[in-house]
Every structure is written in structure tokens, then in C-alpha cells.
Amino acid sequence: MTALSANPNTTLANVEVPWQQSILQGTSAYYSELAVKGVLRPAWADFVSRLPTTGLSDHLDSKLNALAKQIRDNGITYNVYADHAQGTSRPWSLDLLPFIIDQADWAVLQTGIAQRARLLNAMMADVYGKRELLSKGLLPADLVYGHSGYLPQMQGTEPPNKVWLHMVAFDLGRSPDGKWWVITHRMQAPSGLGYALENRLSISRSFTRGFREMHIQHLAGFYRDYIDGIRRLSPKGDSARIALLTPGPYNETYFEHTYLARYLGISLVEGSDLTVRNNNVFLKTVNGLEPIDGLIRRTDDQWLDPLELREDSQLGVPGLLQAIRTGGVVMANMPGSGWLESPAIHGFMPGLGEHFLQEDLLLPSVPSWWCGESPAWAQASERLNNLVIKSTGPNRRGRTMDSIMGSELDEIEKRAWLSKISQRPSQYTLQELIPLSRVPIWTGAGGIEERAMMLRLFAVTDGQGNYTVMPGGLTRVAGDQHGIVSMQKGGTSLDTWVRSGEPVERTTNLKEKLQAKDLQALRRPVSSRAAEHLFWLGRYTERASFSLRLLLRAQLLLNEEEYLDTTTLGLLHELCGKQGLSTEFDPAEPLTQDELEANILERLWYKTGLDEPAAVGLAGQLNGLANVAGQLRERLSSGHWRLLNDCAKVLIEPEWVRFQRSLPTTSLEQVQLYLLAMHGEQSDHMTRDNGWRFLQLGRQLERLCGACDCLLSLTSMPGRAGEHGLALAIALADSTITYRSRYQHRFEWLPTLDLLIFDEDAPYAIRRILYKLDIVIDRLPGDTSQIRQLFDSVYRNGDMPDGLSLEGLQPPFPADTGRKLRAWLQDLLDTAYKVSDLVGAQYFRLAELPDQVIQGR
Asked: What pTM does this model have?
């Protein structure tokens, strides 16, 4: 494949791409990261020289399609909050082309970001300590104390080594003259670290040659420095147990919380997973309480502790602030930094840098005027057309208004805003509107566009007063050529490449060498919440599989049998009703064959209309399966997650389904393949830890419920079910092949009961299910005596209760035997529900958890 020479004067016209004329001509209205007057900038010339000169459009289109598929398959998502309170999850948006930073630019950015991080940390230490910046008038007191992000509860706190900010994020923009400006600071719960890493892994694979030959700096060392810096500040050092505190799966960046926790090798926890005892933080696990020494938080300040902050918070941990103040846990970042995120701070940064660092800031802040200062308001109000109106801080509900562009206001709107600001000036800040630089993106239609971009860079502390800057970052791009840079408003992202002058050594986030003492400490604990979700993952997987077998058999009976006898039709309806696949069976008003088919079909699909009811039946079970799995992202393999995603999509109702009169065999068989693959993932590809045991417990309990329900319906039918009914029961136990190969006979009562109840090898036989339950209960952690006592009351070491035996069930057996059989099946079913409740009370609901603390980590 022919490539362009690495000529710094390579022009866009040399490349066979329908470039936009505006890119070729250039403009002084913004800084182009790609080219100057039709000539590629050196970094881009180097990148383009490693692309094919012929068929380039098709080449890049192919890579873009592969990238989109990879994002979908890996379940990389971003939640967009719109009309729905819980948000709408959509695939993460990533463009194919990277943003490339050359060595000269990076030298300025790296030094300037590290300097600014040190300054912000010093400001935090001062405000919650000596308060010199307030007493000397370097910063108006109202700007600190009047901001909801200032927490008086943290006053006087002294964190280890005076490190308040363990990680800081900065949003930067480049003006038309090529100068970088700092636009925002992010300290409370800055997002982007996980997405930046995923972007790097995806794009570096797309351009392996360019990534290697252009000497692009790696990111792994930065993440290692991040976690090492936190451990260095803990009294336990390298053995400190770190966890990532997330608000939960409805947070907009939950995917990256799970991704980051897995990459860093730490536990992902929610507030409900933690408890504070004696000013120390503990993780509630199925083995007891396990100490947590450090928390990387992705929860905003006000939600951290319902005792001292927002009392309505369901995301925090009661007593957490006290644990932080007393040094019981290292919190990254420390609470109380929200006031530093105010846009008003930027107007005071030069003086603060001179005071705390005795240095001029290498990266200037965007010019800003806090309207709470009369001179600043008077000066800025006369040039509103060129400014951006921002709120100084969030309101009492924690919300911040969208930025208002002064240039987009008509005269009436402008006067209204001037009046509004004059009434409460301290609530508003005006900032210079900087025309952002433009980066190239591949549109996927064989062409390139330039769009406005902002660069988010990250700095982390080493725990000793210094900050390391990630040699990369998260580049965000506007959703259209004139839009605002925002992922919430349809923007996209780019991988950020930082060039080095020499070959880059491979780095890793892994420890160099593990000692024997490290091995037990590095075992991942199973939190009570994770155990509960795994338990229900097993139950929903098994329940959906049972429902699917029932639907496939219903499809066969309803579509291929010209006439079903009343008994079989009633049995089918009763079983479907128990699973929520149809309305409940009413013997007084039985449905006809056509009515039952229509009833089942109505409940089959996910509904897409706004006025449609929530998902029920199989779709509802798959929905429950997906929701539970969403809480376990960090514990499921990418293959398992991909199966879940694809399975859920099969039953989204297409328009043509509304006109279909029969159950769709192809769709059901497709779901069956996904569920069978999930069974394989859960049985053979998961570590056999306590979490897996709860998953298996859930599966076997649900399997027992399904088997008992089926047999209760089968043995309760008036006159007993005929051959169709027996075949249905055998199919639900997934044992049709076994029955035919073993008995080589038509379906009869005795062999059916043998296979469904007494068989020790058939996976859905009751004796086999009880045997599996016996094993998994034995291996549950902690004291299982209550669960064992309850289970043993029905298990009897695999023996049948008195008066029941295979010989005694030889037709025609006495009515009393039938009653005993049904009573035993009902007892099994009731016990399964009681065991489920007892397991939940003992392992999952830990409000009254005893002070059992795991030692010797």
C-alpha cells in the first residue's frame, strides 16, 4: 500500500479525500489544529504520511464502522438526562481521528497544568486552614462562604501531607492566535479518566503503525501514579484497600466508573455498600465487615453524608465526613472543593498564583468578571455581546444553569438579562467568549469536517506535593460545525495523542512482583449488594430460560396442532399465566386456542410507544436480567455483557409485529441461543468465589420453582394431561432427547415422573436440583445453620417423603398418593421461597449487621 512521504509541506489537495473548501482556504476566525493555509501542520503531515494514498475514504470508513461496532459490543455507554429522570443510555461517541499534540505544545501544557494543580491544592488548604487569601483580600469572602461548594464541616481538617486534591481536571480551549486558555476547573467528581483510557485502547488499535512510529506517549503509568499516590497517603501504604465510590448505574458516566475500577483493580462500591464504625469505613461483604482505607469518589459533595450534608441523600454513607476528618479513610478528592469550580475564581487566579507560588501562571484563565464586585460588573455589562453569562455556583438543588451567549441575545433579551443580573449580581459571572480551535473529524461519508473542541487534561498527586499530568486527555468536540462542546448535546470525543521526541517504553499498570502476603489481600471481596445482584442474575437467567422453552413449545402446539384438547390447552394457559406470559388461568372462563395465542403474543415484546405499558412476560424478565447485570458491570466479562445487550434487543417490538398473528419462531430461537451462551458464561467462565455461589444458588432455587410449578399444574389437571401435556412438561425440563433415546416410547406418566422427579443425572429433575442446592448451601460463607435446617426439612438426603415412591406412582395411582405428591411439591416450592427470603435477610439486607470485622487482610 503506497503511503505519502513524511513531508511537513504535504497539502490537503495531495490526499484523495473530498476535503471541505473552508479547510483548504483557512480562516482567521479560529485556530485550525489540522492545517495552515492548506498545508498540514507537521504532526498531521506525519500522521497522514502513514495512511494509504489510494482508497483512503473506503479505508477510513471501514475503520469507523469497526470502531462503532466495537463500542456497541463492549457496551460503552453514556447516560443522557432528558425527559426521563433516570436518563437514557446511548453508545459512547468516539471519532476515528485522534487529536495530536506536538512536543512544544505539550511542554507548555504539562508544566502549566501541574503548576495550577499545586495552586488549587494550596488554596484549598488555606481556606480550610489559615484563611490568608480571605484575610488579605486576595479573594472575596462572599465568593467562598456564599458558594454551596464550601463546607464549613471541613474547617480545621488537616489531611495527610496537606493533600486536598488528589486528582484535578482542567478544560482548556485554544484561541485564534494559538494560545491555550483554562476555561474550567473540575475537582469534586471529575469524569473522563475511564473514557480517555477506552478511547486510547480503541484508536491505538485502529492506527497501530502511526501510534508506534509517531512515538505517542502511553497512559498506563499515569493511572499507576494515581492509585500509588492515594496508597502513599494511607497509614497502611501499599497494603491499603482502595475502592471507587459511585452514585450508581443511573449516573451519566457510570460506565467509566465500572471500567476504571476494573482497570485499577479496586472494588466498585455504592454508598449502601459502606458503613462507618468507630470513625473507620467498612465494606459490607458476605463474610462480614472489611476495612476500606481509601475512596476514589465519583459522588458530589452534598450527597456524601446524610448526617451532615443533604439528609435526603440515598447515595452517601452516614458518618463519612467524621471518618474523613479523623483520618479513618483517605478521600480522593477531599470534600469541600466545589467553590473552586466557580467560574468567578478565574478572575483572581493571577494574584493567587503570585501569593502562593511566587510565580506567574503559565496557562492563563479565560478573562472573567464576578458581578458581585461592582467595578467588574460595571466594566463587563457594557460589552455583554462578547461575553458568556454563567452562574457563579449551583442553586440549592445543586443545579447550574446553561451558559448564555451574549452574542445570541436580541435587544429585549439583553436588557432582561442586565436587569436580572443587577438584582442579584453575586450569582452571576461573565466570561470572555473564546472562539475555540477546530479539529478534523471523519464524518463517515468519505469526507472531513472541522469542529470546535475543548481539551480536558488531568493531574494527579504523588502524595508528596507534586502533580503528574496525564500525557493525553479527553478531547471533546461539538456535535455540529457551530454547536456547543458538550457530550450531553450530541458532541463526540477524540483520543488525545501526545508526541515524544524518542521511542516510548512500554508501561504497565501491574505491580512488578507480588509477594505471598499480597495474594490474599488482593482477592476481591464480594459486597452484600453484589451478592444480591448475582443471586438475582441467576434467578432471572433461569426464569427467562424456562419462559423461553415454554414459549417455543406454545408456538409448536398453537401453530402446528389443528386442535388441542381442553386439558392440554388449560395446562398451557396455566403455566403461561404463572410465568407472566399470559393472563392468569381461570378454569371458569377458559380461553380458546386463538385467544390464548393472541394473549401470549400481546405480552411478548418490549413496547416502544410512550403510552404502552411496561415490559411484561419474557421481555420483562429480560429487562430485569439486564437491569441486574447493569449493577454488575465490573464483574461480568465483555462477552457476557455483549450477550446481555444483544439478547435484550431481539424483543424490541418492530412495527411489523403489530400485524403478525403467530409467535415469531426465529426471534425466540435467537433469544434461546443468547441465553444458552449466558448459561455457559455463568457455569464455566466465572471465578468460583462467593459471588458465583450466590449466582448458582439463585439459578437452582429458580429452577426448583419452575419444576415444582410445572409438576403441580400437570398433576392437578382434571383427568390428568394427555400425551401433549406430558411432552410439554418434558420439553420444559429440556429433556425431550433424553426421554426419546432412553425410553423409545410415546410419552407416558411413569417415565415422565421418573425423569422429572427421581433422575439423578437430568439437570432439571427435582432430585438433581436438590442435590445441587445441598452442595451450594454447604459452601456459602458464614453461619448457614438456619438455611441448612430449613432446606434439610425437605431434602432428606435425596430420599422421597414417606408414602411416595416411583413404584407407588404407577398409574392408575390412588387419589391419596396424588394428594401427597402435590403436598410435597407445594412444600418444596414454599421452602424455595423461604430459603430465598432467609438468604436475603442474612446476606443482603445488613441494617442490623453485627460488628464482625475481617482481620488479617
From this structure: 0.85
